[in-house]
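Dear Dr. H.,

I hope your travels went smoothly. While you were away I took the liberty of generating a structure for the chain from your last submission, since the lab meeting agenda had it listed for discussion. I wanted you to have the full record in hand beforehand rather than looking at slides cold. The sequence, exactly as received, is reproduced here:
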Amino acid sequence: MYRISAIAIILLVVCAGFIQVGAFDYIEIAGIKPDLLLVIVIYISLACQGPETIKAAITAGIIKDVTSSAVFGSYVLSFLALGLLLNYHQRRFYKERIPAQMMFGLCSYIFVAIFVFGINSIAQRGIGPFYPFFDVAVKGALYTGFISPLVFFTASRVLRIRLAHVI
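The corresponding predicted structure, in token form, is as follows:
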């Protein structure tokens, strides 16, 4: 486990938020964009200690809430729940493998999507159409899972965290 300063975490998450909001319009496929903020939260949850995870999850959740049309606070709660869950079990995961990184991105995207959908359904006192949501969630999860190894590699270089042992 590594310790990273709060300023470094906030700068990384804010930069990722700007990239996601500004530049990801150019790499969308069929109207679907990957979730860079989510992958950053996953990475910090798996590589760092609890306080860093909380800071990253709350900052990323606020940025995601501000830029989305979901109920405010739903992404903060979902990123926080996911980050704490991954951080608690981080020693059980073999996060150095690319397939594992892809599965983290894919499964975490679906977890967050269902969590946010549930909060929005409770807030609106009714369940919206689930099939269109599920279709977008699966495509977004695949795309987010696909970019996860690249984000893990880049974040490990930027934060100077040794992700894998190279032989």
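Two observations you may find useful: Helices lie at 6-22, 36-47, 50-67, 74-88, 98-124, 130-158. The chain has a mean pLDDT of 87.

With kind regards,
E. W.
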